[in-house]
Amino acid sequence: MHYPCSTGEAARLLGTSEPRLAETVRRGHVRPPPPIVAGRRLWGPADLIQAARVLGLLTNHLEDTLRSAMPAAVGHVD
Q1: Which residues of 9-34 are buried (b: 16+ CB within 10 A; e: fewer)?
Q2: Distances (CA, A) of 63 to 8, 26, 29, 50, 74
Q3: Which of 38, 45, 59, 66 has its CA 20 to 30 A from that of 16?
Q4: Which residues contact 53 (CB under 8 A, 6 or more apart)?
Q5: Is residue 41 helix, strand or coil?
Q6: Which of 78, 73, 66, 74 is nearest to 10 (CA)?
Q7: 23-75, pLDDT tens digit by residue?
Q8: In terms of C-beta density within 10 A (0-12 exposed, 13-18 middle, 19 or more buried), how is residue 61 classed?
Q9: Comparing C-alpha atoms, which of 48, 38, 61 is closest to residue 3?
Q10: Environment class of residue 4 by beta-carbon count within 10 Å: exposed (0-12), middle (13-18) or buried (19+)?
C-alpha cells in the first residue's frame, strides 16, 4: 500500500467503514488530524495506528506493517 492513503483505502486496510474511521477524527481521537488535500483526508501510517488503536483493531502484525512504512525519523506513536 502507498501512503498517504485516502479514507476509503484506510478503512479497507483496517477492516472498518469510512464513516466509523472518519468518526475517530471528528471525536478528536487522532491527533493531529490527518491533513485534507483537495477535499480528501490523507492518512499516514501514524494516523492509522492511532485510529486502529481507538477502534480496537490494532494487531501486532498491523502495527509492525504500518511502522515499517514510517520514515526512520518518526519515533514512538501513542
Answers
A1: bbbebbebeeeebbebbeeeebeeeb
A2: 19, 23, 17, 10, 14
A3: 38
A4: none
A5: strand
A6: 66
A7: 999 999 999 999 999 999 999 999 999 999 999 999 999 999 999 988 764 55
A8: exposed
A9: 48
A10: middle
